[in-house]
Amino acid sequence: MKKKETSLTFLEQFLPPGAFEEVAPFFKTHTIHLTLTHERKSVLGDYRNPVPSEPYHRISINATLNPYSFLITLLHELAHLLTFVHFAHSVSPHGKEWKTQFRHVLIPFIGKKLFPADVEKALLAYIHDPAASTCTDPRLFKALYRYDKKEEGEKLVDDIEPNKYFMTDDGTVYQKLEKMRTRTRCRNMANGKMYLFQGIVEVKETTYRKR
User: How far is Cα 11 from Cα 125, in angstroms, rounded to an integer?
Assistant: First the structure.
């Protein structure tokens, strides 16, 4: 699906109620080419700085995100924009300068009931040391995942009950055994081998009958 530039008013439908008014000033202060894409499940957003052939800031956001993930991702990319404005290419992409900009961008959205209580609580912890992606912060990822649209049976490994079965994208069935310190030990039902899964891996709960 080809990416198309998104009008500012169209953006409102992807954001939590009340967030558009807080976001709009960024687009009035900076020339931003915003595109939405359905192509990238694993990539939440992307920022590209102005170049001679495209003399404007370019931000791309995954349109399939829930409103809260969409807003956080947009603020993440706006922080990249501000970091570039202040430092150009002289700093690392997710270094202390970006983290400072992200905090400054995110803090005004806290305490205004734009996020559910569980997401905001996770954000307050996350903001102390924001990572390159919300996917790397288990607490925030789990809070946001609750608001995703899911197919029947889709769950995180952490949400599968012990001794129950789940299927990965490639069709392999595993039995969840025990939670370790940071990962979960699971048995591959095809070869009997043990594997360790991160708790925030999305899988599909299933049944299994021994042959």
Answer: 27
Retrieve residue 132's tokens. 């390159």
Candidates 69, 66, 60; CA nearest to 137 is: 69
pTM assigned to the model: 0.88
DSSP string covering 8-76, please? HHHHGGGS-TT-HHHHHHHHHHS-EEEEEESS-SS--EEEE--BTTB-SEEEEEETTS-HHHHHHHHHH
**Both tokens assigned to 32:** 């931003």
3-state secondary structure of 203: strand
Backbone dihedral region for residue 113 (phi beyond 0: left; psi -120 to 50: alpha; all else: beta):
left
CA distance 133 to 127: 12
Tokens (6 digits) for 93: 């992409």
- pLDDT single digits (tens) 89-148: 999 999 999 999 999 999 999 999 999 999 999 999 999 888 777 777 899 999 999 999
Please name each of the domains of the chain with its CATH number.
Answer: 4-145 (3.30.2010), 154-206 (2.30.30.30)
